[in-house]
Amino acid sequence: MSPERLLLTSIHDVGPRSETQVDRLRDHLAAHVPVEKIAMLVVPDHWGEAPLKAGTPFAARLRDWADAGAEMFVHGWYHRDTSAHESFAARMKAKHMTASEGEFLGLDEETAYQRMTQGRALIEDIIGRPVAGFIAPAWLYGPGAHAAMARAGFAMAEDHWRVWQPGAVERPLASGPVITWASRSKPRIASSLFAAWALPTVLRWKKVARVAVHPGDTGVPALLESIGATLRRMTRSHRPGRYAELL
């Protein structure tokens, strides 16, 4: 393990509807990464069916996790894409890169800004501290989302290939593909298992490497086994740390 190389680990889609799976993922990751260094991406109202509310038992757990050191990111609002995409490229991303969950890919600036800032206010009120940043569902951003982030003043954002500081001029913080897994279909499971096997070799000499897991991973034993194996490999070359160390 090199002290100069940083491993960032995150759990996506954290919210009341995924509480059981998040608990399982935290326990699974904690065998390899200190639990206080596992970032959490919080969805304020997953698919409009699971609103995060102050004063609830889950909100109390979220604050306890933050108090223990977990970085909290705003992860969209609904995590659901309802936009009518105008460009061919956006339609292809929306169709093939995610199961209708790229919420911020087609939003205009004002709608994106409203959802970002309301999500931040809700989560910060619950955890009693600033959020670490904003990460769009499915790591997909449209022009409106980029413009909104520049206005909102988030400390950082990330997608599949990079981490950056939003602003009128975006400041790069890290680059390289994130290692993640897909559980929606057998072909996606197979391709993500292959990627998780291959990418640690590619990322071994990168200054920053990222691993991201999702609640759906807990339903596929092969994915859980791959997650553990990947973290065992990555922690040989990279020190588990926090996103804030990039700033």
UniProtKB/TrEMBL annotation:
Organism domain of life: Bacteria
- Coiled coil where? none
Check the record and name the InterPro entries matching this protein: DUF2334, Glyco_hydro/deAcase_b/a-brl
GO BP: carbohydrate metabolic process
| One Pfam family from the record | DUF2334
What this protein is called in its record is DUF2334 domain-containing protein
The organism is Sphingobium nicotianae
